[in-house]
Amino acid sequence: MAVSVPPNLNQERQCWERGESVVVGVDEVGKGAWAGPLTIGAVVLPSNGRINGIRDSKMLRPAVRERLFGRIGDWATTWSVGHASAQECDELGMSDAQRLATRRALDRLSVTPDRVLLDGNWNYIDWLPSTVIVKGDQTCLSIAAASVMAKVVRDRIMSASATHFPAYIFEKNKGYPAPQHRMALAGYGPCVIHRKSWAFMDDLPWTDSRRYDRSLIGQRSLFAA
Fold first, then answer.
1. Fold of domain 10-161
2. What does each C-alpha distance from 171 to 128, 151, 155, 164, 218 come to in angstroms?
């Protein structure tokens, strides 16, 4: 049986050896949700020290993520998150919303990146030197740390939203299409933080709201944010 190797700093060390001293790991959460923001985490880790247990946030229990959140925040050189709202996801489409949220996250860092490491196989950053790493959230420590920070911040936002929209049980499903969430949508329709351009809108048994048509929306003002 294959042994799971925890994320490490190998990718960051390769960058440091090339003279790229500020290396930022970036990861997203919330792309598949039906409600709430798309959230991007950005983390710069130092070359010294170590925190055990950092993994892709999807592999960790909520209580573990919460513990790691504070420890990563204390250890990191700097970190930040950026969001694209549900409305921005509707108006821009997911690709441009992800760029917008990433730009916001990187702009909030206290340093200027020399290199950005991205999870996946799509390099959507064209304004900074960047590298994509397939399964980066499982192998690259700064990306894994970014996934934890983004996940905890977004989960807290969704839990707070549950106070205002209790029918959807956001504190449990975090905006993803869980059975209780589907049932609430069928009974009440979407609330203001639902993504109204998503295909789930086509299946709802009510007609007083229409699926969002982003082709009719002006987008310039959102990119100026």
1. Nucleotidyltransferase; domain 5 (3.30.420)
2. 36, 13, 8, 11, 33
Q: State whether residue 138 is helix, strand or coil.
A: helix
Measured between alpha carbons, how far is 84 from 38 in angstroms, rounded to an integer?
5
Residues 6+ apart with CB under 8 A from 63: none
pLDDT single digits (tens) 71-96: 999 999 999 999 999 999 999 999 99
Cβ within 8 Å of residue 152, ≥6 positions away: 57, 65, 66, 69
Are β-strands 23-29 and 38-44 bridged in parallel, bridged antiparallel, or unpaired? antiparallel
Residue 223 has pLDDT above 50, yes or no: no
Whole-prediction pTM: 0.89
Tens digits of per-residue pLDDT, 25-81?
999 999 999 999 999 999 999 999 888 999 889 889 999 999 999 999 999 999 999
Q: Would you call 130 helix, strand, or coil by DSSP?
A: strand
Question: Could you give the CA distance from residue 75 to residue 54 in angstroms, rounded to a whole number?
Answer: 12
- Cα 110 from Cα 22, distance rounded (Å): 11
Across the beta sheet with 38-44, what order do the strands follow?
78-84, 38-44, 23-29, 115-119, 130-133
